[in-house]
Amino acid sequence: MTETDGGLAFLPLGGTGEIGMNLNLYRLGDTWLAVDCGIGFSGNDTPEAEILVPDPTYIMERRKKLAGLVITHAHEDHIGAVAHLWTRLECPIYATPFAATVLRRKLGEARLDHIVPIHVVKCGGRFNVGPFDIEFIPVTHSVPEAQAMAIRTPHGTVVHTGDWKIDPTPLVGPPCDLERLKQIGDEGVLGLVCDSTNVMSPGSSRSEAEVRVGLTELLGTLKGRIAVTCFASNVARVETIAMAAQAVGRKVVLVGRSLRNLDAAARECGYLAGVLPFFSEQEANDLPDDQVVMIITGSQGEPRAALTRIALDIHPNIALGEGDTVIYSSRMIPGNERAIMQVQDNLTRNGVRVVTDKDGYMIHCSGHATSDDVRTMYDLIRPKYAIPTHGEWRHLTAHAALAQEKGIAAILLEDGDILNLSPGNVEVIDTAPTGRLAVDGNRLLAMDGDVLSARRKMLFNGLIIASVAIDDEGYVIGEPKISAPGLLEEDDPESVRVREEFANAIDEIPDELRGDDHAFHDAAKTALRRALGRKLQKRPLVDVHVLRV
Predict the structure, then answer these.
(1) How far apart are CA 430 and CA 1, in angstroms?
(2) What is the structure's pLDDT at 448?
(3) Domain final residue pick, 329, 359, 389
(4) What digits encode the pLDDT tens for the residues 61-80?
(5) Quick one: average pLDDT of 338-355?
């Protein structure tokens, strides 16, 4: 099926077969709809980059046919890439009031807030994006106003869940609208594109109300300073920590810019109404240790986050030590294990007690649907086809098996698979190019491009640069200089040997190459590689600066 046959297709460009970087596309005829646009965090396999975004090249080439981008909720892995990628998409955005508020702050930091058209849609609202008839359905998640989507088309209805769970007492925002989901199921649903993140967890989801009770009980037993780390976008958890602290007579301090932004956005939209104003990190040292609870960013071991700097004792305002406690009210995202354990080890070395949910306390619950929740969703929606998304391959296959238990055909996709939904067979018909881009300051770099490839090589093999001056005829003036940061010490005998052998090799460059700067440069690089030899057992990035005087 092609883009001109009037059919319906689904294409994930990010977030299917991986955690994070959600970017999904639907095509109706030749018109496209984007759903979510999020970031991901690099793991141990990509130390040269910290924040990643999906490569939007496929839809960027079709952006004149892109009717709009709909945001399901305000988590970073669904909204965080908008500020980085919007100039490549240039389409209107549709979001609930809270997601729109969060997004405007992000766009403001990127100086795009007055350029990007944002249409605010009420929770549960119905609206059109080009030929797509879309209805928001409120669902429970760890951020306010999470919405599933019923996408109605002439070919049938597709329900796109976004992130969700069933929590009868979510504390912040309404519970999952199960009745409306059933009504849409009664209308008939072609496909259910559904979150798979927590599908391997048995039973029903735990409630945020249970976490509030558990945290209150735990805080009441502790002395000294208490710090609680959680996802900065989890408004319900921030409120839970604050209410638990207030219940035991402690004042609450926010530590980390993203938490301060969340506080402002949440209060602007009417959330955190029962929470007293937070203290700033600059005010924390004026409070008695036994009267303070700090909410701190950095639950995933992010290098520049507040908790990581506190653990290294390099934070400008906050220090933790003997007698203090850090509580992890969060889960460990796959790929972040080493970074998180390093932070916890540094805290423990400083005398801090570290508490996680593995210690038997009810201090965290997932915002994603468990296996029983997913079964309930299938009972409500009763789709013809199940399309697991939002998870690694093990999550997707477990989800597919669960759907098949219900007698529903499951289709396993990876990023880039173009799934034909109608007319004809529901099957993968083509593949779109996909990839990852690294956020590097205010620019985006291809992970397999020259810049990051060079950075990767420098990281593992080092860098060696030679500087040499030559006269008009191409003969060396003075002594070449060698610099090899991260590879050789300046006074290392090996460094002296390399410099001498490089100087000798430069003298042997053929006369016919000396008059051409480009040819001389290439010959000098070859000479430098030869001078390094095999003794170092490294293949560093090599460059030569040639100055003709």
Answers:
(1) 9
(2) 74
(3) 359
(4) 999 999 999 999 999 999 99
(5) 95
Strand 156-160 versus strand 8-14 pairing type: unpaired
The two structure tokens encoding residue 416: 């880039």
- Of 359, 384, 409, the domain-final residue: 359
Residues 437 and 503 in one domain: no
- Do 19 and 333 form a contact (C-beta atoms < 8 A)? yes
Distances (CA, A) of 533 to 38, 498, 503, 506: 45, 9, 14, 15
Q: How many domains does the chain have?
A: 3
Structure tokens at 454: 């060079």
Residue 537: per-residue pLDDT: 67
* Per-chain mean pLDDT for the chain: 90
Is 350 within 8 Å of 321 (Cβ atoms)?
Answer: yes
Residue bearing tokens 């294990």: 337
Determine the Cα–Cα distance for residues 489 and 329; give it in Å rounded to an integer. Answer: 44
Q: How confident is the model at residue 464 (pLDDT cuts 50, 70, 90)?
A: confident
**Closest by Cα among 77, 69, 23, 25 to 197:** 77
Same domain, 378 and 231: no
Residue burial 390-412, b: 16+ Cβ < 10 Å; e: rest: bbeeebbbbbbebbeeeebebbb
Cβ atoms of 34 and 24 closer than 8 Å:
yes
Q: Which CATH number does the domain housing residue 483 bear? A: 3.10.20.580
**Cα distance between residue 167 and residue 459, in whole Å:** 45
The b/e string for 461-483 (b: 16+ C-beta within 10 A; e otherwise) is bbbbbbebebeeebebeeebebe
CA distances in angstroms from 468 to 476, 495, 496, 547, listed in the order given: 7, 16, 15, 6
User: If you search the block for the tokens 């890439």, which residue do you land on?
Assistant: 81
Total length of the chain: 549
Q: Which domain covers residue 92, as residue numbers?
A: 8-203+366-446
Same domain, 71 and 186: yes
Query: What are the pLDDT digits (tens) for 182-222?
Result: 999 999 999 999 999 999 999 999 999 999 999 999 999 99
- Which residues sit opposite 448 in a β-bridge? none
User: Do 474 and 373 sit in the same domain of this protein?
Assistant: no
Whether residue 242 is found in the same domain as residue 173: no
Give the residue with greater pLDDT, 502 vs 422. Answer: 422
